Amino acid sequence: MKNPSDKRLNKDGIRIHAIEDFAGMRAAGALASEILDKVAAHVTVGATTGAINEFVHQYIIDKDAKSATVGYRGYKHATCISVNHVVCHGIPSDKRLRDGDILNIDVTVIVDGWYGDTSRMYVAGRPSRKAERLIDVTHESLMRGISQVKPGNSFGDIGAAIQTYAEGERCSVVRDFCGHGLGQVFHSAPNVLHYGRWGAGPVLEPGMFFTIEPMINLGRPETKVLADDWTAVTKDKSLSAQFEHSIGVTEEGCEIFTLSKAGNFHPTWARD
Ligand code: MF3
Ligand code: CO
Ligand code: CO
Questions:
Q1: Ligand 1 atom with least separation from CA of 89
Q2: What is the CA(187)–ligand 2 centre distance, in A?
Q3: CA triplet 254, 248, 76: central angle to 5 degrees?
Q4: What does each C-alpha distance from 239 to 157, 164, 214, 216, 218 come to in angstroms?
């Protein structure tokens, strides 16, 4: 980086972090991804999403970290758990997982003031072939988006890579929610869209920190938010999946802060 101590907003209002700031994001991302590694054992047929949330919340407390979501805009839980046609922001509850359910678990932790935000898909029992395919397509969508992250490319390139691939697989990209800048705050500029045009949008620069978190549906892209003011579902009740990484732009490309040390990011590891 040209000037490592230069903490500033660029012309698009996006924070350019210093080289030292990567260490903070690395620690926060490592804890968030460790939690998602450990929670896998708790995702079983008959488990409640509330119990899964409790495990995560206790884990965060035991590590002397903080949950970014408890108390965030009135949200009360350490996770969002989004089952089947729930797109995102599913609220943990006493509902039990059933054989074949697919679910996203999203966790954001604060470690020494830095935010680590990541989510993955899990399966309870044996998922259907179409559910497995949706999970594969969604994971690949995220990875194709990440492969665009390097200085000089644009945020539009990220969205275009995701959209081109997902729609080519006859799936749809949710428009109503997006990724976001983060760092010492939870949500900041820019909005990271998961669709778009090649070359459009702000240009990527070293020191930008943001999430990519595509939500991909088997049916149509439209969503609606339930009366609880959080739970977003597909309007057509089709299955939805999501994966999320927190990443930082480097001189060479990017660093993924929330990689799974156990190699468990994609649930194929659980297949027999
Ligand atoms: N972690 C989510 C994201 O990826 C945000 C959850 S906010 C909550 O941005 F309040 F619903 F938890
Ligand atoms: Co996020
Ligand atoms: Co998240």
A1: 11
A2: 8
A3: 135
A4: 26, 20, 14, 9, 6
